[in-house]
Amino acid sequence: MRAKLSYAITAAVLVVYFVLVGSRGMLLIQSGTLLTVTFGVAVLILPVIGLWFLWKNTQFVRKANALAAELDAEGGLPVDELRRTPSGRIDRDSADEVFARRKAETESSPDDWRSWFRLAVAYHDARDTPRARKAMQRAIALHEGRTVEA
Predict the structure, then answer these.
(1) What is the pLDDT of residues 58-91, one digit of tens each?
(2) With 0-12 CB in 10 A as exposed, 13-18 as middle and 19+ as buried, what is 47?
(3) Any idea what DSSP says for residue 88?
(4) Cα 116 versus chain centre, distance
(5) pTM, whole model, 2 decimals?
(6) What is the pLDDT of residues 2-16, one digit of tens each?
(7) What span, in angstroms and rounded, lies between the C-alpha atoms of 144 and 24?
(8) Which residues, 6 or more positions from 78, have their beta carbon under 8 angstroms from its beta carbon?
(9) By CB neighbour count within 10 A (0-12 exposed, 13-18 middle, 19+ buried), where does 139 fall?
């Protein structure tokens, strides 16, 4: 719940920022000179890109959470079997062991979104966020029935 609240607050702050930047861009365009119109258009592009990025991230999180809920209902969520340091951080060797098992599971059934979801969690536990995101995107695509490139 805390993560959802943090995400919602961050998204709201970004939207306010995009509106403010967009209004400044409009003011520059309304000035009417070639220079200010050029800067105004450039300034308007930033909020558009930001809103697109925020929308794509929100959709990704929503879909990943839906997969987690479905997997939880099936009883297929990965069990937290990781050892932790006294400070609470995940032990790297433990994460590597679990990752090896998840990778083997995914290699044996590459068209199963569930195995890709569990692999994404293992990547995340191993602190490999880019690969975790790619694995989750693949799980989402497989769940939606879309073809997935290798």
Answers:
(1) 999 999 999 999 999 998 888 887 888 888 888 7
(2) buried
(3) S
(4) 15
(5) 0.77
(6) 878 888 899 899 999
(7) 40
(8) 98, 102, 118, 121, 122
(9) buried
